[in-house]
């Protein structure tokens, strides 16, 4: 009998265990599978119907029957705690030098693996992500303050005003001062 041939909807429920349709969207682990298989082993003799329900549950855990695609982990990516820690660290330290070696050390990964895992999780390289966050911070400061662009560039971690202007123009399609005027009038 194949695990995949089991119809989880027609299986009976087993006290203390969730049915296959109740597992949708839940995180599954090998501990869950071990629990199901141990219960299956105990129930094989006395109740064949309960055994079928347990096999259906094990199948749902292994193949993720009914689980939404968003629940599937990203292969080779960062753990959620690592992504949260990096986001927080980057946002709090935009004005400093942020290297992949330092960021990798922050989440206990080598620089080379960190770069691949970061891109897999965030969809862009660490450098591109940091640059985008710096530009977003610069936009916020341009709208919220009357500080000169040179000071905003420094506060956001750019080398100088021309560095900010060059990257800003590439990103927004206009000079920062023109963007500031246009968006201040709109607000």
Automatic annotation (TrEMBL):
Keyword Transcription regulation applies:
yes
Record Pfam families: HTH_18
Q: Which UniProt keywords apply?
A: DNA-binding, Transcription, Transcription regulation
Q: Does the keyword Transcription apply?
A: yes
Point out the coiled-coil segments of this chain: none
**SMART domains, per database record:** HTH_ARAC
Q: Which SUPFAM superfamilies does this chain map to?
A: Homeodomain-like
Tell me which residues make up the HTH araC/xylS-type domain: 84-182
InterPro entries from the entry? AraC_XylS_family_regulators, Homeodomain-like_sf, HTH_AraC, HTH_AraC-typ_CS
**From the UniProt record, which GO molecular function terms apply?**
DNA-binding transcription factor activity; sequence-specific DNA binding
Output this protein's name. Helix-turn-helix transcriptional regulator
Species this protein is from: Caulobacter sp. 602-2
């Amino acid at each position: 009998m194949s695990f995949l041939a089991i119809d989880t909807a027609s299986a009976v429920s087993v006290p203390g265990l969730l049915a296959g349709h109740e597992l949708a969207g839940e995180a599954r682990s090998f501990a869950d599978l071990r629990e199901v298989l141990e219960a299956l082993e105990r129930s094989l003799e006395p109740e064949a119907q309960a055994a079928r329900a347990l096999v259906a549950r094990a199948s749902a855990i292994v193949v993720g029957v009914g689980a939404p695609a968003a629940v599937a982990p990203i292969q080779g990516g960062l753990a959620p705690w690592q992504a949260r820690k990096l986001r927080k660290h980057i946002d709090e330290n935009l004005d400093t030098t942020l290297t992949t070696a330092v960021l990798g050390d922050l989440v206990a990964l080598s620089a080379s693996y960190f770069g691949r895992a970061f891109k897999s999780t965030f969809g862009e390289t660490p450098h591109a992500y940091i640059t985008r966050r710096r530009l977003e911070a610069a936009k916020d400061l341009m709208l919220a303050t009357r500080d000169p662009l040179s000071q905003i560039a420094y506060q956001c971690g750019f080398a100088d005003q021309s560095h900010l202007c060059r990257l800003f123009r590439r990103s927004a399609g206009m000079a920062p001062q023109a963007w500031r005027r246009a968006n201040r009038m709109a607000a």
